[in-house]
């Protein structure tokens, strides 16, 4: 059978296979469900995490301001700083995901938007994770220095600082490696597929 | 997202529902996947509807093909099976379920679907637009490539499809 004959058949389905049109009630039920799309799920998760950080920020700043003990105040201040960094990170992430979740526009532009967005998301996540390593080490240092009951001498501060810098350097490389692998496992196949589709679409007489 | 769908959206969906079903049929062989994709496309159409601005030189069908194809091809949905349709209960919804298409498909159409299934997702988009008899300028608008590119690719895809049909 020729393709043109198949094309004629394509638009004339058997009456029995024709679905009934969606009623307003059925459509409303369908629209009430949450999207199954990975981007929509990531966006929902990011919004939830951002809300948690917004709640943590005044709490930790309150501790930093009101706590009677110095080390608790320092802890509160640092946690507040981390919450601020996280809020910035999640704002950027939600913004990126928002730009990726609109499927209007032509296919090539949409694939390009998804690919660029996914790449930015990966890069951003990677940098954020690595930036958190020294911050966590600093938090550990303050915890060690402030929780000791003995007198803190300058020598002790130098030793702890040296240990923390060494710890930071030791943690940094495995963190970078594991984060890279994790991101590849999480988004790699999506990115490869989208890039492949984009190449396929671009590959033409003018390409 | 539970606001009542507007009458104009319902009318548009009513008119173009068979088109959305055909896109789903082309991209998903499995009936459950097809149903999930249909729901996802409808949800995305509903979200994009407020931004749709009718223009004299742009057809609603072009806008609809774009969204349906974009969702079907990008398909960043998790492939794990979940009873998505269970969320939508009630007789009204069940009435809207398509009867298992394969039970009514003539052998030629079944062979066509098998052949299409062996093509890449991007090639499927070309096949869809060919079967839907869209003109080259509209195809170019939907896909975001030049008409010349569409022409060249369409010939290649048709050749691939013919070969697949011969090797059934």
The gyration radius over C-alpha positions of chain B equals 17 Å
- Secondary-structure element order of chain B, N to C: HHHHHHHH
Count helical runs of chain A: 6
Work out the number of β strands of chain B: 0
Distance between the termini of chain B: 44 Å
Shape of chain B: globular
Protein model, in words:
The complex is a heterodimer of chains A (207) and B (168). Chain A has one domain. Chain A has helices at 3-10, 24-32, 38-66, 70-100, 107-147, 154-202. With 207 residues, chain A is mainly α. Chain B has 168 residues and is mainly alpha-helical. Chain B folds into two domains: 1-103, RNA polymerase sigma factor, region 2, helix turn helix motif (Rna Polymerase Sigma Factor, Chain: A), CATH 1.10.1740.10; 105-168, Winged helix-like DNA-binding domain superfamily/Winged helix DNA-binding domain (Arc Repressor Mutant, subunit A). Helices cover 65% and strands 0% of the residues of chain B. Chain B is built from eight helices and no strands. The model of chain B is unreliable at 79-99 (pLDDT under 50). Chains A and B meet through helix 1, helix 2, helix 3, helix 5 and helix 6 of A and helix 1, helix 2, helix 3, helix 4 and helix 5 of B.
A few lines on this structure:
With 207 residues, chain A is an all-alpha fold. Chain A has helices at residues 3-10, 24-32, 38-66, 70-100, 107-147, 154-202. Chain B contains 8 helices and no strands.
């Amino acid at each position: 059978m020729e393709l043109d004959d198949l094309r004629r058949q394509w638009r004339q389905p058997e009456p029995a296979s024709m679905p009934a049109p969606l009623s307003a009630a059925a459509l409303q039920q369908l629209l009430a469900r949450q999207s199954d799309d990975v981007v929509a799920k990531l966006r929902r998760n990011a919004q939830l995490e951002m809300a948690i950080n917004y709640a943590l920020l005044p709490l930790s700043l309150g501790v930093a301001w009101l706590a009677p003990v110095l080390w608790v105040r320092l802890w509160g201040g640092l946690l507040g700083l981390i919450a601020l960094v996280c809020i910035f990170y999640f704002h950027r992430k939600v913004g990126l995901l928002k730009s990726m979740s609109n499927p209007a526009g032509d296919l090539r532009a949409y694939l390009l938007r998804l690919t660029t967005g996914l790449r930015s998301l990966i890069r951003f996540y990677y940098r954020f994770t690595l930036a958190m390593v020294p911050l966590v080490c600093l938090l550990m240092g303050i915890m060690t220095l402030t929780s000791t009951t003995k007198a803190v001498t300058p020598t002790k501060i130098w030793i702890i600082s040296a240990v923390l810098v060494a710890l930071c350097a030791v943690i940094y490389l495995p963190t970078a490696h594991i984060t890279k692998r994790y991101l590849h496992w999480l988004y790699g196949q999506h990115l490869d597929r989208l890039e492949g589709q984009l190449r396929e679409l671009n590959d033409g007489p003018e390409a | 997202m539970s606001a009542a769908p507007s009458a104009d959206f319902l009318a548009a969906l009513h008119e173009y529902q068979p088109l959305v079903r055909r896109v789903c049929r082309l991209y998903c062989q499995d009936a459950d996947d097809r149903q999930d994709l249909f729901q996802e496309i409808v949800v995305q159409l509903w979200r994009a509807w407020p931004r749709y601005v009718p223009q004299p030189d742009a057809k609603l069908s072009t806008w609809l093909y774009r969204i349906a194809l974009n969702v079907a091809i990008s398909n960043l949905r998790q492939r794990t099976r979940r009873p998505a349709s269970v969320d939508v209960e009630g007789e009204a919804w069940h009435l809207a379920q398509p009867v298992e298409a394969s039970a009514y498909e003539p052998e030629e159409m079944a062979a066509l679907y098998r052949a299409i299934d062996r093509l890449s997702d991007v090639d499927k988009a070309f096949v869809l637009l060919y079967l839907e008899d869209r003109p080259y300028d509209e195809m170019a608008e939907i896909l975001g490539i030049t008409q010349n590119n569409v022409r060249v690719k369409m010939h290649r895809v048709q050749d691939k499809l013919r070969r697949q049909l011969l090797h059934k």
